[in-house]
UniProtKB/TrEMBL annotation:
Keyword field contains Signal: yes
Biased segments, Low complexity type: 21-36
Cleavable signal peptide: 1-22
The protein, known as: DUF2059 domain-containing protein
InterPro entries linked to this entry: DUF2059
UniProt keywords, alphabetically: Signal
Residue ranges, annotated region (Disordered): 21-47
Length: 188
C-alpha cells in the first residue's frame, strides 16, 4: 500500500492540468553497425537545450501547481526515520537534534535541487507556450483556488480510494467465487 505522502504526491500530479504522463512510444532500437576493435563509440545525441525563459516558466508552473508541497514533506520524513532508528539510544537525543537542525540548510539545498529537476521535467514535456497558458491559469483566481483546495481534495480522495479498494476487492472475490462455482470449483 502507498504511504500517504507518496500517494498524495502521485494524486497531485494526476490532478494538475498538463501533468499527466506523456503517452509516447519509443522508436524501435536501431542496430548499430559493427565497429572495428579500438574504434571510439559515437556519443549519444545531445538533448536539446531548454531556454532560460522556458525553464523559468516550468519552475513557476511546477511551484504554482502545488507539486512543490510534496517535496516539503520528504525532509521531515527523513528526520523522523533517523529519530526512530536512534530511539533505542535516548542519550543521543540532544546531539541528534543539534545535528539535524544544523543540516537544515543542506536539506533545503537538496529540496531546491529536486525542484530544479522537476522544473526540467516539466520543460521537457511541455512547450513554452503550453507552460505559459498553464501559468496563466494558476495565476488566475480559479487556478489559485484549485491549488488551495488540493490538500483537502487529496485527503478525501485517499479516504475514498481506501473504501473503494476494499469494496471492489470484495465484489471481485464474490464474482470470481460465483463464476468458479458455475465451473464446479468451490473457492474459500
Amino acid at each position: 500500500m502507498f504511504r500517504r505522502p507518496a500517494l498524495a504526491a502521485i494524486l497531485a500530479l494526476a490532478l494538475v492540468p498538463g501533468a499527466a504522463p506523456a503517452q509516447t512510444t519509443k522508436p524501435a532500437p536501431q542496430k548499430a553497425a559493427p565497429q572495428k576493435p579500438g574504434t571510439p563509440t559515437p556519443a549519444a545525441a545531445p538533448q536539446p537545450e531548454i531556454s532560460a525563459s522556458h525553464l523559468a516558466l516550468a519552475r513557476e508552473v511546477m511551484l504554482a501547481s502545488g507539486i512543490g508541497r510534496s517535496f516539503d514533506s520528504i525532509i521531515p520524513t527523513f528526520d523522523q526515520q533517523i529519530r526512530q532508528q536512534t530511539l533505542t539510544r535516548p542519550e543521543l537525543s540532544k546531539d541528534l537534534d543539534e545535528v539535524l537542525n544544523g543540516l537544515q540548510p543542506e536539506m533545503e539545498l537538496q529540496k531546491q535541487r529536486m525542484i530544479d529537476i522537476a522544473a526540467r521535467i516539466y520543460a521537457s514535456q511541455l512547450s513554452e507556450a503550453e507552460l505559459n497558458d498553464i501559468a496563466t491559469f494558476f495565476r488566475s483566481p480559479a487556478g489559485k483556488r484549485y491549488v488551495g483546495t488540493q490538500p483537502q481534495i487529496l485527503d478525501q480522495m485517499v479516504q475514498a480510494m481506501q473504501g473503494w479498494t476494499q469494496e471492489v476487492s470484495q465484489y471481485v472475490m464474490i464474482r470470481v467465487r460465483a463464476e468458479m462455482g458455475k465451473r464446479g470449483h468451490e473457492l474459500q
